[in-house]
Design a protein that fits this description.
Number of strands: 13
Structural class: alpha/beta
Order of helices and strands: EHEHHEEEEHEHEHEEHHEEEHH
Number of helices: 10
Mean pLDDT: 92
Largest sheet: 5 strands, mixed
Shape: globular
Length: 293
Amino acid sequence: MPLRIATRGSRLALWQAERIAALLGGDAELVVVSTTGDQRTDVPIWAMGGTGVFVKEVQQAVLDGRADLAVHSAKDLPSETAQGLRLAAVPERADPRDALVGTGLDGVPAGGTIGTGSVRRQAQLAALRPDVRFVSIRGNIETRIGKAGSEVDAVVVALAALERLGLTERVAEVLDPQVMLPQVAQGALAVECRADDEPTAARLTALDDASARRAVDAERAFLRRLGGGCDLPCGALAESRADGSVAIDVLLATLDGKTVLRVRHEGPDPEEVGADAARILLDDQGGRGLLER
């Protein structure tokens, strides 16, 4: 009997679900679900509560038995796994960096515009280019990059999304993580199943990439320690090393980009590394003061 995969209906989401289906040997069928984030394209993501707006309905399809597993962009997942589910696999990760479409950062004129619906991207770019104005844009990848050069000078999107959709020719500049620290788990896929579904979990475990999993676990632990109520711009990027250790760069900023705090931390245990990085950022680098403003 084929496995049923719950997914959003965008071209990118379908690509991701079909990728997992192929890794499972092709014996799968897709269950397409519409999410709050898909339905309310006129509202900024942060105004709808941020993380979770693209995954809750997809997760529910698994919980109520309409699907056996769900495939998400890992960056869309809340840091706490939903009750009744397990994060069964994180396959090999794509490039986690962000990219500019339309023109590179130096090509945006003084007083020019950059399109993004992400407070994380806005804060980091504002720190570099305080002269630039930001325009909130929503919609699928094709809709967003279609605004570059017409409605705005440049648009920021995840490089992995452009790669997966065959749109890398639209890239004007790939942003180094020292310039733009990615969102937690950006470029990674997350595959969930019911917590008590051992047969499906066993099949999915074979898809887990150890290096990607350790990096994503560290980044999610950072976000979890930072606190679910944190609505400030934040980012993280972890690297799993050959010796099994993990190094992570993390960031917390004000929306205007006038304060950007960064910490690099490393150690043997991914979740401890991520949580400790958040603690250092909050308690030693002044991050808690930003949260309390």
